[in-house]
Amino acid sequence: MPTIPASKLGQNNVSASQSSCCIRLHVFYKVVIASVIILVILQYCFSAITESHKYEPWFSISHPQYPQNARGKHIASSPTGSLFERHENESQASASTNATDSGGNLPKCPPVPPHLEGPITVHKEDVSTEVLEQKLGQSLQPGGFGKPANCLAKESVAIIVPYRARETHLRVLLANLHPLLRRQQLQYAIFVVEQAGNGPFNRAMLMNVGYKEALRLNNFTCFIFHDVDLLPEDDRNIYSCPEQPRHMSVAVDVFSYKLPYAEIFGGVSAMRKEQFELVNGFSNLFWGWGGEDDDMANRIKFHKLHISRYPTNIARYKMLTHKKEKANPTRYKFLYSGKRRFKTDGLNSLKYSLKKRELKPLYTWLYVDIGSSKSS
User: Fold this and answer.
1) Which of 149, 172, 229, 320 lies at a CB distance of 3.0 to 4.6 Å from 98, suitable for a disulfide?
2) 209: Cβ–Cβ under 8 A, 6 or more apart, which residues?
């Protein structure tokens, strides 16, 4: 029987060892890839089960549209200086850029505003109306109409604020909102719709009134319905209207920055004109706290639309402390019967009397008589 040289045996052992190592590495890579795929699938399944809503495709991991800092995060450090100092600097920069446009034809604003900061400082301190008008009103037209100075905005946005007897909250909201909207390069106007009298508050009806009255002044294409006590914490939460209705106040501090339930549409929300007309606006029957936003979510679902949202790291808000409104004892009854009234209860059944309209320096004030719950 022929003998195999020792050198040959050594080479065979080395080759076998190398082959075994390659097989193990190949198996290891397969396991890693499979694990990553399984984790991604589980993440999306868990999100669908727990929240059952659709987020807009805006993720914080290496998103190409947003400037990164030195650590690769899409969070620009907030500049030093007060809210008003930053606003004045931005106004001067815009005016300077506009002055250099000798042709007189402004370009369209870029899809992503170039001066977004990401997380921003929320200012809760109260400032007098006179100071606010002096510092912020210079860059606005009467009625709180603002627009970018160096480009043409792609749409016109009406921000509707239902309101009654919350003067401090309104001033704080205006102080935070106007600078943010300016950085977002929006053409916009703020409408404060105040309910006359001291009967039960009807937030939804006031928002319907704001929609109707805003269209009398301008052909707005996008409507933001905004509670007076919510302050945005991130300027990447763009105040515009996407293809689907958008719930903007996803993560609020008093709810531990978590979505209370999947179909919530309260706080701050955005709808396009054609969407709001399609669902016949808000119901007019919800007097007192609660129910009107859930009814709107039902209207959106009924008309084959869905609620879109930014991720919770962007759609963040702080809530100002306030006394809670008295809950509406009939809200569940109207919620359960809502589907039968979608076509007859809303914009087409709205009745109100406009008592005053005033173009103030920072907003358009609408003082309206909407009757009472007994007359509905």
Assistant:
1) 149
2) 193, 350, 352, 354, 366, 368, 370
Tokens coding 61: 């991991």
CA distance 281 to 205: 9
Q: Which value, in Å, is the radius of gyration of the alpha carbons in the chain?
A: 27
What is the phi-psi region of residue 281: left when phi exceeds 0, alpha when psi lies from -120 to 50, beta otherwise?
left
pTM of the model: 0.76
Tokens of 370: 């909407």
Q: Is 71 helix (H, G, I), strand (E, B) or coil?
A: coil
**36-58 burial code (b ≥16 CB/10 A, e <16):** eeeeeeeeeeeeeeebebebeeb
Cβ(192)–Cβ(158) under 8 Å?
Answer: no
CA distance 133 to 140: 10
Q: How many other C-beta atoms lie within 10 A of the C-beta of residue 305?
A: 16
Q: What are phi and psi of 18, to 5 degrees?
A: -65, -40
User: What distance in Å separates the CA atoms of residue 152 and residue 370, rounded to the nearest whole number?
Assistant: 37
- Which SS3 state, helix, strand or coil, does residue 246 take? strand
| Res. 238: pLDDT tops 90 | yes
pLDDT tens digits along 5-44 = 555 545 555 555 666 666 777 777 777 787 767 765 665 5
